[in-house]
Fold this sequence. Notes:
The protein is an alpha+beta fold. The protein is 35% helix and 18% strand. The strands form two sheets. The protein has a three-stranded antiparallel beta sheet, covered by helices on one side.
Amino acid sequence: MADTLISEDAAEERDELSALERISCHVHRRWAHECISSPVHVIVVTGHRWCRRCEAEAFVAVDEVSGSVDVVCTRCREAPGTAATRQIIRTCRASLAAAFGREQARVPAA
Ligand SMILES: [Zn+2]
Ligand SMILES: [Zn+2]
């Protein structure tokens, strides 16, 4: 964890990595999937954890066993169909995989 955090901090400083593409969180110093539920990670402007249609917060359901990540609006119960939602799913899956090692994080065939 510490290694990833340090290397992502450095990459972000060099403008090589977007803060939103990180799999470790600079604010909480944890894996992205562990603190994505924090209010800090609602970004209305970009649509991160935000449903524009309802103007409501969305929550992220992370299943550490299956490695699945879902973003669901608290009002309409649908996933906001935005690039930001896809980015959250991508980074949380990647952080899950990094946290548990590739073997366990592999998506089951079923
Ligand atoms: Zn965080
Ligand atoms: Zn909604």
